[in-house]
Amino acid sequence: MSWKNQSGGPWGGGGGGPRGPWGSGPSSQGPTPPDLEDLIRRSQDQLRTMLPGSLGSKGIILLVILLVLGWFATGFYVVRANEEGVVMRFGRFDRISQPGLNYHWPYPIETVLTPQVTVENKIDIGMRASEDPRRGGAVLRDVPEESLMLTGDENIVDVDFVVQWRISNAERFLFNVQNPEGTIKAVAESAMREVIGRTNIQPILTGARQNIETAVQALMQQTLDGYKAGVIVTRVQLQKVDPPSQVIDSFRDVQAARADAERAQNEAQTYANRVLPEARGEAARIDNAARAYRERTVAEARGQTSRFLQVLDEYQKAKDVTRQRMYLETMERVLGGVDKVVIDRNAASAAGNGGVVPVLPLGEGARRPAAPAAQPSGQGVSR
Question: 137 has which bridge partners?
Fold first, then answer.
């Protein structure tokens, strides 16, 4: 039965003529809606004219076979080198296909998604890149609601950073997290606030950037692994770490004063490093000289002691001979380097010449010419 034979058409009630789907159709004098049976009949006639001969049972079978083959041909798909094919059967994960030409059951039995698993993705937090028509390029716009954070010593710091990540497990990435990029951004902001919240502002502004980046990356990875998000955080990089713009001039003055203090401390340390080694070297030299003097003195004393003990042993064996020998050695040592005159008192009373006995100066003769003969004198002279 055609729609035009019904009263009021498919959307409306009768009596008032044909009406459209929104209740305000054409007037009763306008054109009527097309007949569905007439449209089907015309389509069949056009199909007969396109096919050779009449459309019999064999033609219908051939047409069905061609349609089935075409349907099966839609199952071929290509996975690129940087992708993984995630095949779903009736909307549920079934398998992972590798790069290259692959096949799956055509829609609606199986479908495939091909996420890029080797591409490094980047998320900017605390800043956005926007087009500036006056400058003719992109400029960075600060986002205070993301970048302003509270430090451990209750100061406020403005932190802009970038997170780089890639997919490690395509199945988890597609099915475990509803909005992966938004989740990664929220986790990154939360991890940065936690790390900044337990760090004082001074290390944040000076030398703790590397430690902060490492701590945030580790905390993000731990949180995302707990979510089973199938994501690897490859890098966290701080772009800008400054105090708020309202107090940045005061912070810069403080930084300059601290830099001057560090410079003075470094100069003092340099002077100490130069003076202390010199003092230590001089002290070591004096100590070594004292040790050498002590060793020499002790050695000489031990030698004297040994010599005295040896003389004592000989003295105890033959006291008279040893006494005489010691006397002669002492006289030889004392009188060996001076001029001598020998006076014999017994000979002086007999000869009447004062007892002066001439002595041949053997040692002096070997070193210098002989001295002139001494004039006889009635008195003995000793030098």
Answer: 132
Neighbours of 322 (CB within 10 A): 16
Nearest to 169 by CA among 161, 160, 180, 158: 180
Phi-psi region of 103 (alpha: psi -120 to 50; beta: other; left: phi over 0): beta
Crossing angle for the helix pair 248-317 and 319-335, nearest 10 degrees?
A: 120
Q: Is the pLDDT of residue 26 over 70?
A: no
Asked if 168 contacts 231 with a C-beta cutoff of 8 angstroms, the reply is yes
Residue 302 banded pLDDT, cuts 50, 70, 90: very high
Question: Residue 87 is encoded by which pair of tokens?
Answer: 């095949």
Tell me the pLDDT of the chain averaged across its residues. Answer: 76
pLDDT tens, position by position, 195-251: 999 988 888 887 788 899 999 999 999 999 999 888 999 999 998 888 877 777 777
Matching residue, tokens 């305000």: 24
Segments in the chain forming alpha helices (H): 36-50, 57-73, 144-147, 170-175, 180-197, 201-205, 209-227, 248-317, 319-335, 345-351, 362-367
Query: How many CA atoms lie within 13 Å of 288's alpha carbon, on the beta-carbon side?
Result: 6
125 vs 27 pLDDT, higher one: 125
Question: Is pTM, for the whole model, over 0.70?
Answer: no
Residue 178, token pair as written in the block: 């509803």
Using DSSP's 3-state secondary structure scheme, residue 41 falls into helix
SS3 369: coil
Count CA atoms closer than 13 A to 132's CA, side-chain side: 9
Token pair recorded at residue 123: 């998320």
Q: Which amino acid is at 159?
A: V
**108: pLDDT strictly greater than 90:** no
Peptide bond into 108 cis (omega under 30): yes
